[in-house]
Each structure stands twice: as structure tokens, then as C-alpha cells.
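Board work, copied verbatim: Diaminopimelate decarboxylase
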Amino acid sequence: MAKIVMVSAIPADQQNSSYRYLTVNGGTSEMSRSPNQSLLPLTAEVNQQEHLQVGGCDVPALVARFGSPLYVLDEQSLRTACRQYRQAFEHYYPGQALVLYASKAWSCLAVCAIATQEGLGIDVVSAGELVTALQAGAQPSQTYFHGNNKSMAELQLALESQCRVVVDNWYELRCLAQLTAEIAAPLTILLRLTPGIECHTHDYIRTGHIDSKFGFDPDQLEQVFGFVSQQPGLRCIGLHAHIGSQIFELQPHYDLAAVMVSWLQTAARYGLAMEELDIGGGLGIRYTEADDPPSIEAWVKTVCQGVVAACEASQQPLPRLLCEPGRSLIGTACVTAYTVGSQKTVPGIRSYVAVDGGMSDNPRPITYQSVYRVLAASRMAAPLSDTVTLAGKHCESGDVVITSAQVPPLIAGEVIAIPATGAYNYSMASNYNRVPRPAAVLVGGGDAHLIIRRETLQDLIRQDCLPDALGVSSEEGT
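↓ predict structure ↓
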């Protein structure tokens, strides 16, 4: 039988153990918490073996069954986040609203199917993500195709599937005008504009400032609206903007509403009846105990108040309001389990502990200098007496998962877990060094279901082609 550990329930002699990372808003109901504010999945517990347990499943036991590394996705956390977004819009916005799951965070059939079941639409940025969303049950009318360089093949696929296309630039707009010149029913589109709003986040994930590869610049508004109004094959129903990712500030999202509503007024002068405003996403999550992001409800409330206030000030009807959360839906719903391997101590400098994964299953530390925490999943009560550099297995000096990890003395073969790995981990995974990508399991109610098979060595060479002239003879191969 598992015991749920809250802040007040941690014994004094275990305060400096992996137990401490289970601390959240002590005393609140597990399912009433905003999942993005929790370091671990909502169902995280410690069982009587002092193992980390997620969704009623013992994490070390999952590794023994499914292999390592392993993505462990908590279904309850994901569904709770979906519901909190949807219910917050129902409560705070007097008009119609639609929440879209930004599937670039983690695109696979199971995740998209859960989002769809919870009443969310899907935001996609490639043909692959579009096919995945539709195969998972997403409705074309609730599937929005983004991207700054969609190919002609992707645009044709969007046209055939009848999904919404968020047009990013002049090249794409002119291509669509050509493709739709003679179609019977017009293609439904939105226009992505750059609002020029700064926010405090990593430079690589700021997309709302003027110097960005995304969207039409504000000084192009009149020209863009004029062009679109002359295209019978295009039905422009709305505007889109996005100011960044992993944002803890609320004010920029409130400010964005006024900017976008003013654009609606400009569009009306060209006879464009804009019905939708898509304000993007960007709400941050907790990666370490020092992070303090706003709740889903607080973010939605701010967005809704901003749009309502802007529409009232300009005496405009409320548009259908869309948002596109990704990280804040799925980021903290997943932990990645690894197995400890080799160790090395450089006297007076640092100690290295290697795991059987790294930058191929989580490229965020080497790409964004992202910071994570680690749990001794096999010994949650063990004192965190050591400071080590948790290193990956790849042939790259920068392949470091955590620079200063607080851990008990780790033993080769034991299981550790990295929380908050649901967003941009699997989706950005690679085969660097020809390492197979991990499996993923969906856990809930004590059951675990495989949602992504582990790649095999044969999978790695399946797409390789060896010209006859390079073929290895049987004698050479022996």
C-alpha cells in the first residue's frame, strides 16, 4: 500500500532525501492543484519499499519490465491539466473558447487521443504532427496547422484534410492563394502576426519580439489584409500571436489582448470578419523547487480579462478565444527513469555519475542550459549526501543532464528519475551515436500501457541504403 507524502508528512530524518522533491502545496487535494506548479506528477507517491510510484506503478519495477531509459507519463496529471484549462475558460470567458494542445511538446497517438477526449483541439507544425493528430481522432475543424516554412506538399495536405491553416508569411500566403484559386469551398485560415511584446525567458524561445522568424510584422498589416480580402479561395477567420515559452509573468499576456483586438479593428476596414483570436500559449512549469509559475487558472483568468477589457473599450463583440498550451499541459506529467552506470571522480573538481541516456532522450540541458532535479527512485528515503554531475552516455563533453545533482551515494544498476520531462524531451529526441530512442508508458490506476515502443538496433539501420559497390562480401565480413 502506498503512502502519499506531503510537506507536513515528511519525517524529520528524511527532509534531506528524495522525499523533499514531493513537496508541493501541502494540504491541498491532489487533483485540485495546478499540474504545472507541481514538480512531480500529481499521483507521485512513495510506496512501502521506499520506491517512487507514479500512477500507482512502482517506477523501478517499470524499468525492470519495459527497460531503461523510460518515459513514464501520468495519465491523471495530463487529463487534469486539460480539464483545468477548459473549465477555467468556461468560468472566466463569457464568449466561446477552444483550448488547443500544442502537440510539438509531445506528439504521439496516445497523447493526442487524450487531449482530444478531453475536448481540446490540436495545434500541429508539420505533416507528421498533422497526420498523428488526425489518426488520434482530432477533428479537422479543431486542428490548426502552424509553421514558418510549410512545404507545398504540407499545404496540399492541409487543404485535403480541411484543417485550419495559420499563415505565417508572404511566401506561404501566395502559395495558398495559388492552391485555392479554383477550389469550390475556400480554405479557412488565420494570420500569424508578431506583436512586439518582450518577456523574460531564454532567447531561443522568445517568439513575440519584432526580430523573430515567425509571423507578419505589424507594419505589414494593411498590405496583408488587403491581399487576403482579394482571395476568393481563402476565408480568413482570425489572428494568431505568441509571445514565448516558459513564461512566469502574467502582464505580457494581458497586454497582448489589447494589441490583438486593435488588429481586429484594422481587419474590419478591409471587410474581413475576424471571428477568432488565438493568443498562443507560453505558461511555464516547475522544473526545480525554486520555480514558481502561475497556475493554469490564474493564466486563463488574466487572458480572459485582457480580451474582455479590450473588446469593451473598443466596443467590439467578443471573438472566439483560442489558446495553445503545450508544456504546461504535459511537462510535469512525465518522469524519465534511468539506470546508473559508471562513475568518475576528478579530485578537487567534481564527481561524475553516468546514466544510460542523456542528450539523445533529453536535449534541453545542452540546447537551452535547462536545469532539472533528480530523484533516487529506488531509495527515496536515502539522505542526499553527495553532489555529483549527472552525465549522459554520449560522446559529447556537453552531454550533462544535471551539473550539481544532490543524491545519495549512487550504486551502479539502481534507478533514478528526472521529473518534468514531458515537454520537448521525446519530441526532440534523436539517435545521436546511433542510440535507440526510449520507450514510453502511460500509467494510471496501477496499470501501465506501452504507448511508444523502444527502438531496436535494427530500427536504426532500417532506412539506410548500401549501394552494391559498397556491399561487404561474406569473406570480408567474417
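The domain at 146-325 is CATH 3.20.20.10 (TIM Barrel).
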